[in-house]
Amino acid sequence: MTTTIALAGNPNSGKTTMFNDLTGSSQHVGNWPGVTVEKKEGRLKGRKDVVIQDLPGIYSLSPYSPEEVITRNYLITEQPSAIINIVDASNIERNLYLTTQLTELGIPVVLALNMIDIVHKRGDVIDTDKLSKAMGCAVVETSAVKGLGSKNAAEKALWLSDLHAHGGHSRDHVHAGANHVGHEHHLHHEPPFEPKHRFSAVVEDAIKLIGALIEDAAAAAATATGAPTRWFAIKLFERDSEVQRHLKLDEQQQAQVEAIIKTAEQQLDDDSESIITNERYSFVTDVIAQTLTVKDSSGVSLSDRIDRVVTNRVLALPIFALIMFVVYFLSISTVGTAMSGWVNDVLFGETVPGAMEEFLLSVGAADWLQSLILDGIVAGVGAVIGFLPQMLTLFLLLAILEDCGYMARIAFIMDRIFKRFGLSGKSFIPILIGTGCGVPGILASRTIENESNRRLTVMTTTFIPCSAKLPIIALIVGALFPGQAWVATSTYFIGMAAIIISGIILKKTRWFAGDPTPFVIELPAYHLPRVKGVARTMFERGWAFVKRAGTIILLATIVVWFLSSFNWTLQMVDTDESMLAAIGSAIAFIFSPLGWGDWRATVASITGLIAKENVVGTFGVLYGFAEVAEDGAEYWPMLAAAFTQISAFSFLLFNLLCAPCFAAIGAISREMGSARWTAFAVAYECVFAYLVAFSFYQIALLLTTGAFTVATALALLVVLATLYLLVRKPYLSHEPKRKQLKKAPAST
Ligand code: GDP
Ligand code: MG
C-alpha cells in the first residue's frame, strides 16, 4: 500500500525545493510565486511506498484561483495520508492563515517551519512547542534548500498518518475529539492533528447548527472526500459555491443554511466570508504574539534597501534595461561569442567537416551520403549547436536573476506599467517563464482567472524571445551587427512592447474587454544565488537544447538538405536549382516587402515554425559548409552579404514575433481549448509580425535612402492605423464587476 504525503503551502515558501530534497528529483524552483501550476508526484527517497505530492502554492482554500482549485480538490478528494504544510518561517504570520484551514481538513498536518535559516540569521526565535500546541499540529524546523529537516518532516508525517489510520477515531473531528483513545502514550491528551482554532461564539454556534443540518449530506459526501462535517459547515457558512454544489442540499436545507448565516451576519455586522477571514487572522495574530520573538526590527533589511533603488519609480526601468543589456552583452557579445565563434568557425567550420570528409572519403562513401552528412547534418545541426556556449551563458545569467529574487521584482515593476493599460501584471509571470521556453510560459497563464485576460496572455506570451530564438538573434547580431550588443538587448524590449501594444489594442475590442485580474505578488527576500540550483537550471535547459538539436532539428535539417540537394526529378543539383529553391522562390514574394525576399530566408523562416533553432540550422545548410569548401568564404560573412542591416533587422523582427514553434502552438491550442481561438492566435501573431517588419523596413528605407514608394505609403498607413487602434475608445463591457478577492493584510 502506498502512503501519500502532500506538500501544501503559500507560493514561494519552498515546497518544490523540499519536494526535490525528499524525492531526489529536479523540478524547477524559482524565487517567485507561480512557478508550480500543476501538481507533481514523486517517491520518497529510499521509500518506494511513499508518494510525495508537490502542489501549487495557495494562500487559502477558497475556490477562486486555479491553483486554489487544484490544491483544494486534491486535498479533499484524494485524501492524502498527511500534509506537510510548508511555511515560510521568515514570513510566518501570513503563512499561518492557510494552516488554520489545512488543519480543519481532518488530515494530519506537519507544519514545516521552512527557511528557518533566515529566521536564525535575523536572530528571531519561534517557540515550536507553543506553536504546535496552539495550531494543533506537529511542528518541525526545516531549511529545504540546505537539506535540513526535510527528512524529519517526512518521518513525522508518516508517523502521524500511521497514528491517524490506526488511532481508531473517525476523521470527523466534530465528534471524534472526545473519544480519542490515547494509546500512543506521548500523545496522551492531545493528538497533534486536532485543530485548535475556534471561531467566536456566534460563528461556532452557526457552524454547529449548519453541521447538524447537513450531517447526512456531509456523511454521504465524506465517503467520497473524507473531509469532516465541520469543514463542510465552515465552507457553507462562507457561502462556498463549490461546496454548496458538492453537498447537493435540497431547497429547504439551503434556505435554512442561508437563514443561519444571515442571523450571524446581522449579529456581527459583516458578511460571512469576511467574518471567517478576520477571525482566522486575529487567531493567527494571537498565536504569533505568543510564539515569535523578534530580535530587533528597527533597522531596514538589506533586501528592502536594495528594493528602494531597484523598484524605484524612476530608476526601475533603466536598471532593468541595464541588467538585460549586461545579460545579452555577456552571453552574445563576449563570453558567448568567443566560444561560439570558435565552435562555429573552427570546430564545425574546419575540424569536424575536415575530419568527417577525410573519413567519408577513406571509406569510399557515396556522394549523396557525403553530402547528407557534411552539407546536411554537420552544417545544419552544427550551426545550431554552435550557439550552445551562448545559450549556456544566457541560461546561467537568467537562472541567477531568477534565483536571487530579481525576476519577482521585474514582475512587480512591469505590473505598474501594465496596470496603466488595463493589463494585469499577472500576465507577466508567463512572460518571464517564456524567456526560457514558450511552452511552460503559456501553461503558466492558467493562473489568470479572467478568461479574456488569459487568452490575451496566451496569445502574446511568445512575443518575448525564448531561448530557442537566441541563436537567431546571435546569428543576425554576429553576422550583421558585430559588437553591438544593444541589438540583442533590444529584442527583449521589442517583445515587451509587442505585448503591451497588442494588449492595449486587443483590450479595446469586444472579445478582450474586462477588468484585469488583481495582481498580488510578494517580493521574496533577496539571497545570493545558490550554485546548485542555478547550475541545475542551466544544465537542464542546455540539455533540453542539445536534445532538440539531436532530434527535431536533426530531422528538419535532413529534410531541408534533401529538398535543397535534389530537383523534382530527384537528381542531385546545386541548391539554386533544387526543389527547395523552387518552392522558396515561389513564395518569396510574400516577404519581399519586408526586405528579404530571398528564397533562403523565406525557407528558413518557415522551418522556424517547427523549432526556432531551425532558422539557423537551415541557413547552415543553405549557406553552408559546402560553399565554405568551394570558395573559402565563411558562413557568417556569406549571410552578411545576403542582407543589409535594415533587412536583417526586419528578418529578426519577423522571426521574433511570428507564430511560435509547433510545440508552443500545441500549448496554445491546449490552453485555448478551441481550434478557432488557436487559429486566431497564430494568425494574429503572424500578421502582427509581418506588419511590424514591413513598417520597420519601409520606414527605415525611407529614412536612409529617401526612397518613397507605394510600399512606404502603406507602411505609414499601418503606423497611423496602429496609433488609432491604440488611442480609440475602448469597448465598454457590461459584465458586473467580480467580487474582489480578500487579501491578506500586509504583514510587517
Ligand atoms: P515553492 O513556490 O513553494 O515551490 O517554492 P520554491 O521551492 O520554488 O522556492 C522558492 C525560493 O525559496 C527559491 O529561491 C528557493 O531557493 C528558496 N528556498 C527554499 N527553501 C529555502 C530555505 O529553507 N531557506 C532559504 N533561505 N531559502 C529557501
Ligand atoms: Mg513550486
Describe the fold and architecture.
The chain has 748 residues and is mainly alpha-helical. Among the domains are: 3-184, Rossmann fold (3-Layer(aba) Sandwich); 201-268. It is 62% helix and 5% strand. Strands 2-3-1-4-5-7 form a six-stranded mixed β-sheet, with helices on both faces. It is elongated. The two termini are 45 Å apart. Residues 9, 11-17, 29-31, 35-36, 57, 114-115, 117-118, 143-145, 403, 527, 533 line the site of guanosine-5'-diphosphate.
Q: Which value, in Å, is the CA radius of gyration?
A: 30 Å
* Sheet having the most strands: 6 strands, mixed
Measured distance between first and last alpha carbons: 45 Å
CATH topology of the domain at 3-184: Rossmann fold
The total strand number stands at 8
The first-level CATH class of the domain at 3-184 is given as: Alpha Beta
Mean pLDDT: 83
Structural class: mainly alpha
Q: How does the overall form come out from the CA principal axes?
A: elongated
CATH architecture classification name of the domain at 3-184: 3-Layer(aba) Sandwich
Helix count equals 34
Give the ligands present.
Answer: guanosine-5'-diphosphate, magnesium ion
CATH evolutionary superfamily of the domain at 3-184: P-loop containing nucleotide triphosphate hydrolases
**Approximately how much helix is present in the residues?**
55-70%
Strand order of the largest sheet: 2-3-1-4-5-7
> pLDDT under 50 segments (min length 5)?
168-190, 626-633, 735-748
**Into which percentage range does the β-strand content fall?**
5-15%
